DNA sequence: CTCTCAATAATGTATAGACATTATCGTGAG
DNA sequence: CTCACGATAATGTCTATACATTATTGAGAG
Protein backbone atom coordinates (compact mmCIF):
# COMPACT_ATOMS: atom_id res chain seq x y z
CA UNK A 1 0.00 0.00 0.00
CA UNK A 2 1.15 3.51 -0.61
CA UNK A 3 2.63 5.31 2.30
CA UNK A 4 -0.30 7.69 2.55
CA UNK A 5 -3.79 6.68 1.54
CA UNK A 6 -4.91 8.03 -1.81
CA UNK A 7 -8.19 9.29 -0.42
CA UNK A 8 -6.25 11.15 2.23
CA UNK A 9 -4.07 12.75 -0.38
CA UNK A 10 -7.02 13.81 -2.46
CA UNK A 11 -8.83 15.15 0.57
CA UNK A 12 -5.77 17.08 1.59
CA UNK A 13 -5.27 18.63 -1.80
CA UNK A 14 -8.85 19.74 -2.09
CA UNK A 15 -8.76 21.05 1.45
CA UNK A 16 -5.67 23.06 0.60
CA UNK A 17 -7.29 24.56 -2.43
CA UNK A 18 -10.25 25.62 -0.34
CA UNK A 19 -8.20 26.90 2.55
CA UNK A 20 -5.85 28.80 0.31
CA UNK A 21 -8.79 30.56 -1.22
CA UNK A 22 -8.16 29.16 -4.68
CA UNK A 23 -11.59 27.59 -4.51
CA UNK A 24 -13.95 30.06 -2.93
CA UNK A 25 -17.26 29.30 -1.35
CA UNK A 26 -19.71 28.21 -3.98
CA UNK A 27 -17.00 26.98 -6.31
CA UNK A 28 -18.03 23.80 -7.95
CA UNK A 29 -15.43 21.13 -7.82
CA UNK A 30 -14.73 18.82 -10.69
CA UNK A 31 -17.16 15.91 -10.90
CA UNK A 32 -16.00 12.71 -9.32
CA UNK A 33 -15.35 11.25 -12.73
CA UNK A 34 -12.89 14.01 -13.51
CA UNK A 35 -11.05 13.65 -10.22
CA UNK A 36 -11.05 9.94 -10.73
CA UNK A 37 -9.22 10.48 -14.01
CA UNK A 38 -6.97 13.18 -12.54
CA UNK A 39 -5.79 10.97 -9.72
CA UNK A 40 -5.98 7.75 -11.63
CA UNK A 41 -8.05 6.04 -8.99
CA UNK A 42 -11.53 4.63 -8.69
CA UNK A 43 -14.60 6.68 -8.09
CA UNK A 44 -15.13 5.13 -4.65
CA UNK A 45 -11.82 6.54 -3.57
CA UNK A 46 -12.61 10.03 -4.79
CA UNK A 47 -15.99 9.74 -3.16
CA UNK A 48 -14.47 8.77 0.15
CA UNK A 49 -12.09 11.71 0.02
CA UNK A 50 -14.97 14.10 -0.52
CA UNK A 51 -16.98 12.31 2.16
CA UNK A 52 -14.37 13.42 4.65
CA UNK A 53 -14.72 17.01 3.57
CA UNK A 54 -18.48 16.84 3.75
CA UNK A 55 -18.19 15.58 7.31
CA UNK A 56 -15.96 18.50 8.11
CA UNK A 57 -18.51 20.85 6.64
CA UNK A 58 -16.20 22.09 3.91
CA UNK A 59 -18.19 20.74 1.03
CA UNK A 60 -21.82 20.30 0.18
CA UNK A 61 -23.01 17.87 -2.40
CA UNK A 62 -26.08 18.12 -4.55
CA UNK A 63 -27.13 15.30 -6.75
CA UNK A 64 -26.95 15.96 -10.44
CA UNK A 65 -25.63 19.46 -9.71
CA UNK A 66 -22.26 18.53 -8.28
CA UNK A 67 -20.14 19.18 -5.20
CA UNK A 68 -19.58 22.70 -4.00
CA UNK A 69 -17.35 24.46 -1.56
CA UNK A 70 -19.56 25.20 1.41
CA UNK A 71 -20.73 28.65 2.32
CA UNK A 72 -18.61 30.94 4.49
CA UNK A 73 -17.58 29.02 7.48
CA UNK A 74 -18.92 30.13 10.79
CA UNK A 75 -16.34 29.69 13.45
CA UNK A 76 -17.17 26.29 14.78
CA UNK A 77 -15.01 24.99 17.52
CA UNK A 78 -14.81 21.88 19.58
CA UNK A 79 -15.18 22.67 23.21
CA UNK A 80 -13.97 20.04 25.59
CA UNK A 81 -15.52 20.23 28.97
CA UNK A 82 -13.53 17.87 31.10
CA UNK A 83 -14.43 16.35 34.37
CA UNK A 84 -13.33 18.75 37.06
CA UNK A 85 -11.12 16.18 38.76
CA UNK A 86 -9.13 15.46 35.63
CA UNK A 87 -8.92 19.13 34.91
CA UNK A 88 -7.33 19.72 38.27
CA UNK A 89 -5.07 16.73 37.82
CA UNK A 90 -4.00 18.04 34.42
CA UNK A 91 -2.73 21.15 36.16
CA UNK A 92 -0.61 18.99 38.37
CA UNK A 93 -2.59 19.84 41.45
CA UNK A 94 -4.13 17.66 44.07
CA UNK A 95 -7.84 17.29 43.69
CA UNK A 96 -10.16 17.13 46.62
CA UNK A 97 -13.90 16.92 46.63
CA UNK A 98 -16.07 18.47 49.27
CA UNK A 99 -19.73 17.65 49.52
CA UNK A 100 -21.53 20.65 50.90
CA UNK A 101 -25.04 19.33 50.88
CA UNK A 102 -27.06 16.45 49.63
CA UNK A 103 -30.79 16.69 49.65
CA UNK A 104 -33.33 14.28 48.35
CA UNK A 105 -36.63 15.98 47.76
CA UNK A 106 -39.76 16.09 45.71
CA UNK A 107 -39.03 18.23 42.64
CA UNK A 108 -39.88 21.85 43.29
CA UNK A 109 -40.75 24.42 40.67
CA UNK A 110 -37.16 25.18 39.73
CA UNK A 111 -36.14 21.51 39.65
CA UNK A 112 -39.02 20.75 37.36
CA UNK A 113 -38.01 23.49 34.98
CA UNK A 114 -34.35 22.59 34.90
CA UNK A 115 -34.97 18.89 34.51
CA UNK A 116 -38.04 19.33 32.37
CA UNK A 117 -39.96 16.79 34.40
CA UNK A 118 -43.47 16.79 35.71
CA UNK A 119 -42.43 15.79 39.18
CA UNK A 120 -40.91 12.98 41.15
CA UNK A 121 -37.97 12.76 43.50
CA UNK A 122 -34.75 14.54 42.71
CA UNK A 123 -31.35 14.59 44.29
CA UNK A 124 -29.85 18.02 44.80
CA UNK A 125 -26.16 18.24 45.48
CA UNK A 126 -23.79 21.06 46.15
CA UNK A 127 -20.10 20.46 46.15
CA UNK A 128 -16.87 22.31 46.13
CA UNK A 129 -14.00 21.09 44.04
CA UNK A 130 -10.62 21.96 45.47
CA UNK A 131 -7.20 22.09 43.88
CA UNK A 132 -4.29 21.92 46.29
CA UNK A 133 -6.73 22.70 49.03
CA UNK A 134 -7.95 25.92 47.44
CA UNK A 135 -11.45 26.33 46.07
CA UNK A 136 -11.43 25.57 42.37
CA UNK A 137 -15.04 25.30 41.31
CA UNK A 138 -18.46 25.14 42.80
CA UNK A 139 -20.95 22.66 41.52
CA UNK A 140 -24.67 22.50 41.81
CA UNK A 141 -26.16 19.29 40.59
CA UNK A 142 -29.67 18.06 40.14
CA UNK A 143 -30.31 14.44 39.33
CA UNK A 144 -33.68 13.08 38.44
CA UNK A 145 -34.09 10.01 40.62
CA UNK A 146 -36.80 8.80 38.31
CA UNK A 147 -34.30 8.59 35.49
CA UNK A 148 -31.37 7.52 37.65
CA UNK A 149 -32.60 5.69 40.74
CA UNK A 150 -29.12 4.28 41.37
CA UNK A 151 -27.90 7.75 42.27
CA UNK A 152 -29.68 7.35 45.59
CA UNK A 153 -27.04 4.90 46.72
CA UNK A 154 -23.99 6.60 45.28
CA UNK A 155 -21.38 7.97 47.61
CA UNK A 156 -20.82 11.46 46.32
CA UNK A 157 -18.38 12.27 49.06
CA UNK A 158 -15.91 9.98 47.32
CA UNK A 159 -16.64 10.47 43.66
CA UNK A 160 -17.87 13.70 42.17
CA UNK A 161 -21.38 13.54 40.76
CA UNK A 162 -20.04 14.29 37.31
CA UNK A 163 -17.60 11.42 37.40
CA UNK A 164 -20.14 9.04 38.85
CA UNK A 165 -22.74 9.90 36.26
CA UNK A 166 -20.24 9.69 33.43
CA UNK A 167 -19.30 6.22 34.53
CA UNK A 168 -22.74 4.90 35.38
CA UNK A 169 -25.26 6.62 33.21
CA UNK A 170 -25.12 6.64 29.46
CA UNK A 171 -26.38 9.81 27.90
CA UNK A 172 -27.28 10.65 24.38
CA UNK A 173 -27.28 14.40 24.27
CA UNK A 174 -25.99 17.33 26.21
CA UNK A 175 -26.33 21.04 25.97
CA UNK A 176 -24.12 23.66 27.50
CA UNK A 177 -24.57 27.25 28.35
CA UNK A 178 -21.61 29.40 29.20
CA UNK A 179 -21.98 32.78 30.74
CA UNK A 180 -20.34 35.27 33.02
CA UNK A 181 -21.98 35.94 36.33
CA UNK A 182 -21.25 37.98 39.40
CA UNK A 183 -20.44 36.02 42.54
CA UNK A 184 -23.39 36.01 44.87
CA UNK A 185 -22.66 36.08 48.56
CA UNK A 186 -22.87 32.31 48.85
CA UNK A 187 -20.68 31.73 45.81
CA UNK A 188 -18.20 34.32 47.00
CA UNK A 189 -17.97 32.69 50.40
CA UNK A 190 -17.48 29.21 49.07
CA UNK A 191 -15.02 30.13 46.35
CA UNK A 192 -13.23 32.60 48.59
CA UNK A 193 -13.52 35.44 46.11
CA UNK A 194 -14.93 38.91 46.62
CA UNK A 195 -18.65 39.22 46.36
CA UNK A 196 -19.68 40.45 42.92
CA UNK A 197 -16.47 39.33 41.25
CA UNK A 198 -16.82 37.81 37.80
CA UNK A 199 -17.23 34.05 37.58
CA UNK A 200 -17.51 31.71 34.66
CA UNK A 201 -20.68 29.68 34.77
CA UNK A 202 -20.97 26.48 32.81
CA UNK A 203 -24.38 24.93 32.84
CA UNK A 204 -25.05 21.54 31.40
CA UNK A 205 -28.22 19.68 30.68
CA UNK A 206 -27.90 16.03 29.90
CA UNK A 207 -30.43 13.89 28.10
CA UNK A 208 -30.93 10.26 27.57
CA UNK A 209 -33.36 9.73 24.75
CA UNK A 210 -35.48 12.81 25.37
CA UNK A 211 -35.51 12.31 29.13
CA UNK A 212 -33.43 14.76 31.08
CA UNK A 213 -31.13 13.03 33.45
CA UNK A 214 -29.31 15.78 35.17
CA UNK A 215 -28.59 19.44 35.34
CA UNK A 216 -25.29 20.82 36.51
CA UNK A 217 -23.91 24.24 37.00
CA UNK A 218 -20.27 24.74 37.62
CA UNK A 219 -18.98 28.10 38.71
CA UNK A 220 -15.32 29.00 38.38
CA UNK A 221 -13.57 32.10 39.64
CA UNK A 222 -13.30 34.21 36.51
CA UNK A 223 -9.73 35.26 36.91
CA UNK A 224 -8.47 31.76 37.40
CA UNK A 225 -10.23 29.78 34.76
CA UNK A 226 -10.92 29.80 31.07
CA UNK A 227 -12.40 27.44 28.56
CA UNK A 228 -10.42 26.72 25.48
CA UNK A 229 -11.82 25.55 22.20
CA UNK A 230 -10.02 24.64 19.04
CA UNK A 231 -11.10 24.69 15.48
CA UNK A 232 -13.23 21.78 14.59
CA UNK A 233 -11.22 19.51 12.30
CA UNK B 1 -32.21 1.53 -3.17
CA UNK B 2 -33.61 0.96 0.26
CA UNK B 3 -35.27 3.91 1.84
CA UNK B 4 -32.51 4.26 4.43
CA UNK B 5 -28.93 3.36 3.62
CA UNK B 6 -27.77 0.07 5.08
CA UNK B 7 -24.65 1.62 6.51
CA UNK B 8 -26.80 4.21 8.22
CA UNK B 9 -28.96 1.55 9.74
CA UNK B 10 -25.98 -0.40 10.99
CA UNK B 11 -24.39 2.74 12.39
CA UNK B 12 -27.61 3.67 14.13
CA UNK B 13 -28.03 0.28 15.71
CA UNK B 14 -24.51 0.14 17.01
CA UNK B 15 -24.84 3.69 18.26
CA UNK B 16 -28.00 2.75 20.11
CA UNK B 17 -26.33 -0.20 21.75
CA UNK B 18 -23.53 2.03 22.94
CA UNK B 19 -25.76 4.85 24.07
CA UNK B 20 -28.11 2.54 25.88
CA UNK B 21 -25.23 1.14 27.80
CA UNK B 22 -25.65 -2.35 26.41
CA UNK B 23 -22.13 -2.07 25.03
CA UNK B 24 -19.98 -0.38 27.60
CA UNK B 25 -16.69 1.32 27.02
CA UNK B 26 -14.07 -1.21 26.09
CA UNK B 27 -16.60 -3.65 24.73
CA UNK B 28 -15.34 -5.28 21.64
CA UNK B 29 -17.77 -5.28 18.81
CA UNK B 30 -18.21 -8.22 16.52
CA UNK B 31 -15.64 -8.35 13.77
CA UNK B 32 -16.68 -6.86 10.48
CA UNK B 33 -17.09 -10.32 9.04
CA UNK B 34 -19.66 -11.17 11.66
CA UNK B 35 -21.63 -7.97 11.17
CA UNK B 36 -21.43 -8.55 7.45
CA UNK B 37 -23.13 -11.89 7.98
CA UNK B 38 -25.58 -10.48 10.51
CA UNK B 39 -26.75 -7.73 8.20
CA UNK B 40 -26.30 -9.69 5.02
CA UNK B 41 -24.28 -7.00 3.38
CA UNK B 42 -20.74 -6.56 2.15
CA UNK B 43 -17.82 -5.80 4.38
CA UNK B 44 -17.34 -2.38 2.80
CA UNK B 45 -20.77 -1.40 3.99
CA UNK B 46 -20.13 -2.52 7.54
CA UNK B 47 -16.80 -0.77 7.41
CA UNK B 48 -18.39 2.45 6.30
CA UNK B 49 -20.92 2.28 9.12
CA UNK B 50 -18.16 1.90 11.67
CA UNK B 51 -16.18 4.65 9.95
CA UNK B 52 -18.94 7.02 10.88
CA UNK B 53 -18.76 6.01 14.52
CA UNK B 54 -15.00 6.35 14.54
CA UNK B 55 -15.38 9.89 13.21
CA UNK B 56 -17.81 10.62 16.01
CA UNK B 57 -15.31 9.28 18.51
CA UNK B 58 -17.57 6.48 19.68
CA UNK B 59 -15.39 3.68 18.47
CA UNK B 60 -11.71 2.99 18.24
CA UNK B 61 -10.27 0.46 15.90
CA UNK B 62 -7.12 -1.54 16.35
CA UNK B 63 -5.80 -3.71 13.61
CA UNK B 64 -5.82 -7.37 14.30
CA UNK B 65 -7.39 -6.72 17.69
CA UNK B 66 -10.78 -5.44 16.60
CA UNK B 67 -13.07 -2.47 17.09
CA UNK B 68 -13.89 -1.28 20.57
CA UNK B 69 -16.33 1.08 22.17
CA UNK B 70 -14.29 4.14 23.05
CA UNK B 71 -13.72 5.20 26.61
CA UNK B 72 -16.36 7.61 27.89
CA UNK B 73 -15.23 10.84 26.38
CA UNK B 74 -15.24 14.04 28.25
CA UNK B 75 -18.12 16.18 27.28
CA UNK B 76 -17.25 17.44 23.88
CA UNK B 77 -19.49 20.02 22.43
CA UNK B 78 -19.67 21.99 19.25
CA UNK B 79 -19.47 25.65 19.96
CA UNK B 80 -20.65 27.89 17.20
CA UNK B 81 -19.27 31.34 17.36
CA UNK B 82 -21.25 33.35 14.92
CA UNK B 83 -20.38 36.65 13.42
CA UNK B 84 -21.68 39.33 15.76
CA UNK B 85 -23.82 40.92 13.08
CA UNK B 86 -25.66 37.69 12.32
CA UNK B 87 -25.99 37.00 16.00
CA UNK B 88 -27.75 40.31 16.50
CA UNK B 89 -29.87 39.73 13.43
CA UNK B 90 -30.83 36.30 14.75
CA UNK B 91 -32.29 38.02 17.79
CA UNK B 92 -34.43 40.12 15.51
CA UNK B 93 -32.62 43.28 16.39
CA UNK B 94 -31.11 45.95 14.25
CA UNK B 95 -27.36 45.71 14.01
CA UNK B 96 -25.15 48.74 13.90
CA UNK B 97 -21.41 48.89 13.83
CA UNK B 98 -19.42 51.64 15.41
CA UNK B 99 -15.72 52.02 14.74
CA UNK B 100 -14.11 53.50 17.81
CA UNK B 101 -10.56 53.61 16.63
CA UNK B 102 -8.37 52.40 13.84
CA UNK B 103 -4.65 52.58 14.26
CA UNK B 104 -1.96 51.35 11.97
CA UNK B 105 1.28 50.90 13.84
CA UNK B 106 4.49 48.99 14.11
CA UNK B 107 3.80 45.92 16.26
CA UNK B 108 4.47 46.66 19.90
CA UNK B 109 5.29 44.09 22.54
CA UNK B 110 1.73 43.02 23.15
CA UNK B 111 0.89 42.87 19.46
CA UNK B 112 3.87 40.67 18.85
CA UNK B 113 2.84 38.27 21.55
CA UNK B 114 -0.77 38.06 20.52
CA UNK B 115 0.01 37.65 16.86
CA UNK B 116 3.15 35.65 17.45
CA UNK B 117 5.10 37.71 14.97
CA UNK B 118 8.58 39.15 15.09
CA UNK B 119 7.42 42.56 14.03
CA UNK B 120 5.97 44.44 11.10
CA UNK B 121 2.94 46.65 10.73
CA UNK B 122 -0.33 45.78 12.38
CA UNK B 123 -3.79 47.21 12.26
CA UNK B 124 -5.45 47.71 15.63
CA UNK B 125 -9.17 48.25 15.67
CA UNK B 126 -11.69 48.86 18.37
CA UNK B 127 -15.34 48.70 17.63
CA UNK B 128 -18.66 48.58 19.34
CA UNK B 129 -21.39 46.35 18.03
CA UNK B 130 -24.85 47.65 18.76
CA UNK B 131 -28.21 45.93 18.78
CA UNK B 132 -31.21 48.23 18.44
CA UNK B 133 -28.92 51.07 19.30
CA UNK B 134 -27.79 49.57 22.59
CA UNK B 135 -24.23 48.35 23.14
CA UNK B 136 -24.06 44.65 22.45
CA UNK B 137 -20.41 43.75 22.34
CA UNK B 138 -17.04 45.37 22.31
CA UNK B 139 -14.40 44.14 19.94
CA UNK B 140 -10.70 44.58 19.93
CA UNK B 141 -9.02 43.38 16.81
CA UNK B 142 -5.45 43.05 15.72
CA UNK B 143 -4.63 42.23 12.13
CA UNK B 144 -1.17 41.45 10.93
CA UNK B 145 -0.70 43.60 7.86
CA UNK B 146 2.15 41.39 6.79
CA UNK B 147 -0.24 38.46 6.51
CA UNK B 148 -3.21 40.49 5.30
CA UNK B 149 -2.01 43.61 3.48
CA UNK B 150 -5.44 44.09 1.92
CA UNK B 151 -6.86 44.98 5.31
CA UNK B 152 -5.21 48.37 4.95
CA UNK B 153 -7.78 49.37 2.37
CA UNK B 154 -10.84 47.82 3.96
CA UNK B 155 -13.60 50.05 5.19
CA UNK B 156 -14.25 48.81 8.68
CA UNK B 157 -16.83 51.45 9.32
CA UNK B 158 -19.14 49.57 6.98
CA UNK B 159 -18.26 45.95 7.55
CA UNK B 160 -17.11 44.55 10.85
CA UNK B 161 -13.53 43.30 10.85
CA UNK B 162 -14.78 39.81 11.59
CA UNK B 163 -17.11 39.76 8.63
CA UNK B 164 -14.51 41.30 6.34
CA UNK B 165 -11.86 38.83 7.33
CA UNK B 166 -14.22 35.90 7.06
CA UNK B 167 -15.07 36.91 3.53
CA UNK B 168 -11.61 37.89 2.36
CA UNK B 169 -9.08 35.85 4.22
CA UNK B 170 -9.08 32.08 4.28
CA UNK B 171 -7.90 30.60 7.52
CA UNK B 172 -6.90 27.14 8.45
CA UNK B 173 -7.07 27.07 12.19
CA UNK B 174 -8.57 28.99 15.03
CA UNK B 175 -8.38 28.81 18.76
CA UNK B 176 -10.74 30.29 21.26
CA UNK B 177 -10.50 31.20 24.86
CA UNK B 178 -13.55 31.97 26.89
CA UNK B 179 -13.37 33.59 30.25
CA UNK B 180 -15.19 35.83 32.65
CA UNK B 181 -13.71 39.22 33.35
CA UNK B 182 -14.66 42.27 35.31
CA UNK B 183 -15.50 45.34 33.25
CA UNK B 184 -12.66 47.80 33.35
CA UNK B 185 -13.56 51.44 33.32
CA UNK B 186 -13.20 51.69 29.55
CA UNK B 187 -15.22 48.56 28.94
CA UNK B 188 -17.86 49.66 31.39
CA UNK B 189 -18.18 53.04 29.71
CA UNK B 190 -18.46 51.64 26.24
CA UNK B 191 -20.86 48.82 27.09
CA UNK B 192 -22.82 51.03 29.46
CA UNK B 193 -22.55 48.60 32.34
CA UNK B 194 -21.32 49.22 35.87
CA UNK B 195 -17.60 49.12 36.34
CA UNK B 196 -16.49 45.74 37.67
CA UNK B 197 -19.56 43.93 36.43
CA UNK B 198 -19.00 40.49 34.97
CA UNK B 199 -18.43 40.22 31.25
CA UNK B 200 -17.94 37.29 28.97
CA UNK B 201 -14.71 37.50 27.05
CA UNK B 202 -14.21 35.50 23.89
CA UNK B 203 -10.74 35.66 22.48
CA UNK B 204 -9.88 34.21 19.13
CA UNK B 205 -6.59 33.57 17.42
CA UNK B 206 -6.73 32.73 13.77
CA UNK B 207 -4.04 31.01 11.76
CA UNK B 208 -3.37 30.47 8.16
CA UNK B 209 -0.81 27.76 7.76
CA UNK B 210 1.17 28.50 10.90
CA UNK B 211 1.05 32.23 10.37
CA UNK B 212 -1.21 34.11 12.71
CA UNK B 213 -3.52 36.37 10.84
CA UNK B 214 -5.52 38.04 13.49
CA UNK B 215 -6.40 38.24 17.13
CA UNK B 216 -9.79 39.28 18.35
CA UNK B 217 -11.35 39.77 21.69
CA UNK B 218 -15.03 40.26 22.06
CA UNK B 219 -16.49 41.33 25.35
CA UNK B 220 -20.17 40.89 26.10
CA UNK B 221 -22.09 42.09 29.11
CA UNK B 222 -22.33 38.99 31.25
CA UNK B 223 -25.94 39.24 32.16
CA UNK B 224 -27.09 39.66 28.61
CA UNK B 225 -25.15 37.07 26.75
CA UNK B 226 -24.29 33.40 26.84
CA UNK B 227 -22.62 30.94 24.59
CA UNK B 228 -24.46 27.78 23.84
CA UNK B 229 -22.89 24.55 22.76
CA UNK B 230 -24.51 21.29 21.86
CA UNK B 231 -23.29 17.80 22.01
CA UNK B 232 -20.99 16.95 19.19
CA UNK B 233 -22.78 14.57 16.88
C1' DC C 1 10.48 -21.24 31.28
C1' DT C 2 11.46 -17.77 27.95
C1' DC C 3 12.25 -15.89 23.72
C1' DT C 4 11.69 -15.67 18.67
C1' DC C 5 9.27 -15.77 14.79
C1' DA C 6 5.89 -17.24 11.66
C1' DA C 7 0.89 -17.94 11.06
C1' DT C 8 -3.25 -15.63 11.53
C1' DA C 9 -7.12 -12.77 12.30
C1' DA C 10 -8.49 -8.63 12.29
C1' DT C 11 -8.76 -3.85 10.18
C1' DG C 12 -7.23 -0.55 6.07
C1' DT C 13 -7.40 0.57 1.44
C1' DA C 14 -8.52 0.18 -3.20
C1' DT C 15 -10.84 -1.48 -7.63
C1' DA C 16 -14.43 -2.05 -11.15
C1' DG C 17 -18.81 -2.38 -11.89
C1' DA C 18 -23.75 -1.97 -11.01
C1' DC C 19 -27.89 0.23 -10.07
C1' DA C 20 -30.54 4.09 -7.45
C1' DT C 21 -31.70 8.76 -6.97
C1' DT C 22 -32.32 13.33 -8.12
C1' DA C 23 -31.95 17.95 -9.97
C1' DT C 24 -31.05 20.10 -14.19
C1' DC C 25 -31.45 20.95 -18.94
C1' DG C 26 -33.19 20.85 -23.35
C1' DT C 27 -36.76 19.76 -26.37
C1' DG C 28 -41.21 19.43 -28.09
C1' DA C 29 -46.23 20.25 -27.47
C1' DG C 30 -49.46 23.59 -26.76
C1' DC D 1 -43.51 32.02 -25.05
C1' DT D 2 -44.43 28.70 -21.59
C1' DC D 3 -44.82 24.51 -19.62
C1' DA D 4 -44.33 19.54 -19.11
C1' DC D 5 -41.57 15.87 -19.36
C1' DG D 6 -38.04 12.80 -20.67
C1' DA D 7 -32.98 12.43 -21.23
C1' DT D 8 -28.97 13.09 -18.77
C1' DA D 9 -25.31 13.98 -15.69
C1' DA D 10 -24.15 14.09 -11.49
C1' DT D 11 -24.01 12.03 -6.69
C1' DG D 12 -25.45 7.90 -3.42
C1' DT D 13 -25.06 3.27 -2.34
C1' DC D 14 -23.70 -1.36 -2.62
C1' DT D 15 -21.15 -5.71 -3.98
C1' DA D 16 -17.43 -8.85 -4.47
C1' DT D 17 -12.83 -9.18 -4.50
C1' DA D 18 -8.04 -8.27 -3.76
C1' DC D 19 -4.15 -7.17 -1.41
C1' DA D 20 -1.79 -4.37 2.55
C1' DT D 21 -0.94 -3.74 7.31
C1' DT D 22 -0.53 -4.85 11.92
C1' DA D 23 -0.88 -6.81 16.50
C1' DT D 24 -1.77 -11.08 18.61
C1' DT D 25 -1.22 -15.78 19.27
C1' DG D 26 0.88 -19.97 19.45
C1' DA D 27 4.36 -23.16 18.37
C1' DG D 28 8.95 -24.32 18.34
C1' DA D 29 13.84 -23.47 19.54
C1' DG D 30 16.91 -22.67 23.03
UniProtKB/TrEMBL annotation, chains A, B:
<protein>
    <recommendedName>
        <fullName>Histidine utilization repressor</fullName>
    </recommendedName>
</protein>
<keyword id="KW-0238">DNA-binding</keyword>
<dbReference type="InterPro" id="IPR010248">
    <property type="entry name" value="His_ut_repres"/>
</dbReference>
<dbReference type="InterPro" id="IPR036390">
    <property type="entry name" value="WH_DNA-bd_sf"/>
</dbReference>
<feature type="domain" description="HTH gntR-type">
    <location>
        <begin position="4"/>
        <end position="72"/>
    </location>
</feature>
<dbReference type="Pfam" id="PF00392">
    <property type="entry name" value="GntR"/>
</dbReference>
<dbReference type="InterPro" id="IPR028978">
    <property type="entry name" value="Chorismate_lyase_/UTRA_dom_sf"/>
</dbReference>
<dbReference type="GO" id="GO:0006547">
    <property type="term" value="P:L-histidine metabolic process"/>
</dbReference>
<dbReference type="InterPro" id="IPR036388">
    <property type="entry name" value="WH-like_DNA-bd_sf"/>
</dbReference>
<dbReference type="GO" id="GO:0003677">
    <property type="term" value="F:DNA binding"/>
</dbReference>
<dbReference type="InterPro" id="IPR011663">
    <property type="entry name" value="UTRA"/>
</dbReference>
<dbReference type="InterPro" id="IPR000524">
    <property type="entry name" value="Tscrpt_reg_HTH_GntR"/>
</dbReference>
<keyword id="KW-0805">Transcription regulation</keyword>
<keyword id="KW-0804">Transcription</keyword>
<dbReference type="GO" id="GO:0003700">
    <property type="term" value="F:DNA-binding transcription factor activity"/>
</dbReference>
<dbReference type="GO" id="GO:0045892">
    <property type="term" value="P:negative regulation of DNA-templated transcription"/>
</dbReference>
<dbReference type="Pfam" id="PF07702">
    <property type="entry name" value="UTRA"/>
</dbReference>
<dbReference type="InterPro" id="IPR050679">
    <property type="entry name" value="Bact_HTH_transcr_reg"/>
</dbReference>
